[in-house]
Amino acid sequence: MCLGIPGEVIEILADRPDLARVDVSGVKRAINIGLLSEEGVEPGDWVLIHVGFALSKIDEAEARAAMEFLEGIGKAYEDEMAALRESQIL
């Protein structure tokens, strides 16, 4: 099962404007934000992430509700977080 996980944008990478450093429950990774170029993404924004791509912007309340749900489903969420910890976008 693949999940969309909410994360908070920390910074837009200066040398790669299509990438943002995002914090997902304390795990910080570079995420591709190219799909949201028309919406514009800034530090402090919340995004829904799937396989290294930000799919949509969401608000903080929606992000919190999604995290509560994901944490409640157990193993699928733990597997997704493990994959995120091990991932890198170069």
UniProtKB/TrEMBL annotation:
One Pfam assignment: HupF_HypC
Query: Could you tell me which Gene3D superfamilies the record lists for this protein?
Result: 2.30.30.140
> This protein's superkingdom?
Bacteria
Give the family per the record.
Belongs to the HupF/HypC family.
NCBIfam families given in the database record: hypC_hupF
| Record-linked PANTHER family | HYDROGENASE MATURATION FACTOR HYBG
This chain belongs to which protein, by name? HypC/HybG/HupF family hydrogenase formation chaperone
Q: Which organism is it from?
A: Kibdelosporangium lantanae
